[in-house]
Amino acid sequence: MPTPRIYSATPLTPDTVMMLDEYGRRHAIQVLRLRESDPLTLFDGTGGEFPAAVEIIDRQTVSVRTAQPEFPERESPLKLHLFQGISKGERMDYAIQKATESGVAEITPLICERTVVRLDRKRLEKRLLHWRKVAISACEQCGRNQIPQIHEPRLFQNFLSSLDSDPIEHGFVLDAVAKSKFSGFPLSQQTIGRVGIIVGPEGGLSRQEIAAAEEAGFNGVQMGPRILRTETASVVAIAIMQSLWGDL
Description:
5-stranded mixed β-sheet; 31% helix; 6 helices; CATH 2.40.240.20; Alpha/beta knot; alpha/beta
């Protein structure tokens, strides 16, 4: 059975006895059901991971002793930024979870013309916090020690206008009627730089949004004759790109 992994919001140091934070405590007790002397692995998102063992565990506290850090390389060489149209509840969670497991470096939720979910500022902030927790949980499961950056949601047009100050070397936008496929772009893993992929919400991107993305430098691509759900489309697109230019 794999050693359980727990994220620590507190920076980790070697050869230290430390108390797990509230998230770690609940995860250790309620989910993993750890006992004293049980092994675990801690990571704080900075790139390394710390073998550890439970020292004391009760209802109120969990203390662990860390060992020397290890630095396994589990990050993809493809620096991929997913621009994901916001979809309903579990669909958006699924897209973020699987994108994290698949090795994306950054995720920006997009509010598009056909976005069904309408959230005020307060609810958006709550969803953003929730999505970041989804990414952390996915890192615990898949072994990543760096958590992908989940940016604040952006309006589609505002996102495009921001590219001047935060450029993407190679951008793609999913378009069911596009002529090109990912395999038609002979990019080199050594020189590819940052890559962006735009995936629309449940109803897809409008023709105006696709045209605006292409005008901003994104290449329209399609993934075959079948219509995929938004959360499926992002997973398939990432898998294709990781296979062509990443580490799959």
